[in-house]
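Morning run. Coffee first, then this:
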Amino acid sequence: MHHVQQLINGQFVKSNTDEWIDITDPATQEVIAKVPQTTDDEINQAVAAAQTAFQTWRKTPITTRARIFLKYQALIRDHMDELAEILTAEQGKTIADARGDVFRGLEVVEHAAGIANLQIGDFVENVASGVDTYSIWQPLGVCAGITPFNFPAMIPLWMFPMAIATGNTFILKPSEQDPMVTMRLVELAIEAGVPEGVLNVVHGGKATVDAICDHPDIKAVSFVGSTAVGKHVYERASRSGKRAQCMMGAKNHAVILPDANKEQTLNQLAGAAFGAAGQRCMALSVVVLVGAAGEWIDDIKAKATGLIVSAGKNDKDLGPLISPAAKARVEHLIGTGVEEGASLILDGRGITVAGYEKGNFVGPTIFDNVTSDMQIYQQEIFGPVLCIMRAGSLDEAIEILNANPHGNGTAIFTQSGAAAHKFQQDILVGQIGINLPIPVPLPMFSFSGSRASKLGDLGPYGKQAVQFYTQTKTVTARWFDDEASRGVNTTISI
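And here it is:
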């Protein structure tokens, strides 16, 4: 049985713990590896290694740091197929989706390779006679990241490359449910030249999370995951004096106007609602049909019915959910939708996949006539469940969206520039898609979820990540010549 290792001070080592967590194939329930609950001593060793490494890494030339990530992105490309296969085996998503998971993280690595252009300060000459003022962006120290199960390649790559490129050292805590692809990415980072102690990896559940939040030598924590855990991390880390950013739960809507390109819209809705088995914080979980678009119900159902559910390695449309508990929760919420009066027009419960009868499968599920007081609307289902609501006008649809507390992403489908412009102005959500259902920005921008989907002011990658992982130091300098040295100045003015 494979035992997942830790990375401490440049060495991959087996934990001394007596508590091991099973990693299971979601399509078969077969235990494929075990991951440790890292001990307190091992966490302290990892932080101490990072603290020591920071003293030299922070002074490493920025071009040297950039070259490491140039090599790293090439290694990820060379190992793309291997990484996707590992990811699918432990997480369950299709091979195509797994490759996408890795690729979206790779884009952030590529961005980190341009750190010399991203970490430039400001300079103003002669703010007073002979006086110059300039600002520099310096690293914080030891930073940490806590990542979720649903994107075990992309989200770690959101975090440690930007933190390390800006001169920090890092403690990474992958999801205990699927850490193996993360560890392979870490191995490649070491191969690319990340020095010992600069990147460290610890494992486990709540105990490890709490230790990261509490440790006095960790200066910042980045988190992606559920709302409940995100709030816990933000509050606990903040109490310890740390910077914290937490990307949390969502309830993403799409507004469909009758003038939208029908076939294109239907295809994108199906992919965004049911892809990755709905296990995305940017999944499209609510569709608001405006006016005559309400007649598209049968077409939406037909698209969903045509999707194939199978084990991820078979590379069909949907793989399994991550665990039996996740499946049970999704099926329970589907049951509450029926009980509370929504119209279940496609039921994905109880499906079996030949050869994978123990898999955590839930098929595409669609509810019509959903109202805002129902549990299926109020909760993030995190499964392949689409809720359909109706609105008589664009204004009414905007009211529905703005009344929902979450703000991760939303979209409008229309051929009207005026309608799209009104939507992007009036909607209270951080990321807007126009004829795009999952509007996640590329790394030259920043992930900008908002409201109840986010705690902290800055996003996890892009320009905002450089700000998050650095502190601004402003220097005001005067170099005296003979003329300036004469006399005593007792006033504030210089």
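The first helix runs from residue 40 to 57. Good start to the day.
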